[in-house]
Amino acid sequence: MSQIIGLFPTPVMRAPGVLSPEDVAAFAEEAVASTSLTNAYSDLLSHTPVAGVEANSNFSRLGGLVGPKVVEFGEVLFGEALAWRIKEIWVNVLEPGGRQAIHTHANSFISGVVYLTEAHPSANLVFHKAIGGSNFIFGNSNPRAKVNAFNGGKWAMPETRAGDLVLFPSYLLHEVPPNHGARRISIAFNAIPERLDNFGYAIGFS
User: Fold this and answer.
1) 95 CB-near residues (< 8 Å, 6+ apart)
2) CATH code that applies to domain 13-133+145-194
3) Domain boundaries of the chain, sorted by first residue
């Protein structure tokens, strides 16, 4: 029997219910009140200034809640349970009609999103294949073609609920399409390991 092997797949982790309903309510109340920066591409998306987890007690508590999942995901990426640190964290408030343009996160290895509200299907996080990667120059996109994990150019997260956590490699292109639902609140963060050791050539991050 023929076998299809998914060679060098890109991992994305979804961890349901990392935050309790009580934590979600507390974080959401503070989040809406503290956003002060308008997104460069959509005036219906606002953020808090990027900060460290020590900036306030909620960020610090969130860091403790997501920390074990970051370590778990890091072991998938690097094959070792490393010590990880959240280097920056911020709140996103996406109003109806708002969007987040396609981008990656520089100077980090793991990026995460914690949902404080349920995301409308129109505003699910969408991941894209790298531009200029190892794709064929000529594709086969037409109504008859069946899209799968090997020929698709993008993939949308399934349903996400308040309290859920999504982790992905920071180099992965992602966006949030225009939101056709209610206000969408999330907390995003970037994480780095304490060090990486490549056959004895080690580098530390601070």
Assistant:
1) 44, 45, 46, 179, 183
2) 2.60.120.620
3) 13-133+145-194
